[in-house]
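Recall that a protein's primary structure is simply its ordered list of amino acids. Everything else, from secondary elements to tertiary packing, is in principle encoded there. The following example makes that idea concrete.
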Amino acid sequence: MLSLKRRTFKEAAFDQFNNLLMLAICFATLYPIWYVFVNSFNEGQDAMRGGIYWWPRMFSVDSYLAVFANDGIMLAMGVTVAKTLIGTVIHVLFTAMVAYAFSRRELIGRSVYMIIGTVTMFFSGGLIPYYLLIRDIGMLDSFWVYIIPAMFSFFDLIIFLSFFREIPDALEEAAKIDGANDFKIFYQIILPVSMPVIATIALFHGVYQWNDYFTGMIFINKSDLQPIQTYLYRVVAQSSSNQMVAATSGNVFKTVSSQSVKLATMVVTTMPIVIAYPFLQKYFVKGFMIGSIKG
C-alpha cells in the first residue's frame, strides 16, 4: 500500500511538472506575440520610452491609421491576397490532376517518375541556377513568378496520391460504363469526393503563399509587385523607417513612430492567418493522417 501511494505521488508530481512545463512553453511562445500586439496599440511616442509589457499605457490606434493610409502597404496587401487566392486555386487543381494521373496503374513509367520526383524533394540545383532559369523564361518582375513556379509540389502530390488510392475503383468503373472519359471522371467524380484532401492542400499552400517573402525579395524589383511580407521584411530590415511614417498622408499622425508603425504592420500582416488557423487546424491534422492508416 505504501509503495502504491509513493508511485501515485510520483505520478502526480510528474504530471504537475509536465503541466508547468507546457505552460512555460506556451508563455514563451505567445508572449512575444502579445508584446507586439500591446505595443502596436500604444501611442507611438510614449511606447519609445519602454516599460510596456502587459497593457497599453496610452491606448491609440494612430499607428493602424498610418498603416492603412500608406498606399504602399495597401498595394502590397492586395498583391498578397491576389497571389494567395490565384496561386492556391491553380496549385490545387494542377497538383490534383498530376496526382490522379500517377494513381492510374496503366501509366507507363510511373515508378521512374516517382523516383525522379522523390529525388527533387531532397536535392535541387540551388538558388543561382533557379534565378537564371526564372530570368531566362522572362518572369523577373512579373506577377506570375508567384504562381507558375509554385504550381506543383511533389510532397502535395504524395498526399493527393494517398487519398486517391483509397477511392473505390467501382466509382470509376461505373462512370466508364456510362461513357465518361478520364477528364469527366476527374472533374465530376474524383474532385467532389476529395474535398477533405483538397481543403488540406489548399490550406498548406495558402499559408505558404501568404507568408512567402523570399520570392518577392529575390525576383521582384518593382515596388507595385511586392507582397506584404516582402514589404514588411524590408521595413524591418531598414535601420530607420521614418520614410514609411512620412508617407502616411503628409505625416499628419504626429503621435506615431517608426517603431509603432512597424509593430502595427506586423499585426496587420499576421493577424489573418492567426485568426484563420484555429478554425482550420483540423485540416492540418487530417492532412498528416491521410494514408497513415491502412486496412
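Residues 159 and 285 are 12 Å apart (CA to CA). Residues 291-295 have pLDDT under 50 and may be disordered.
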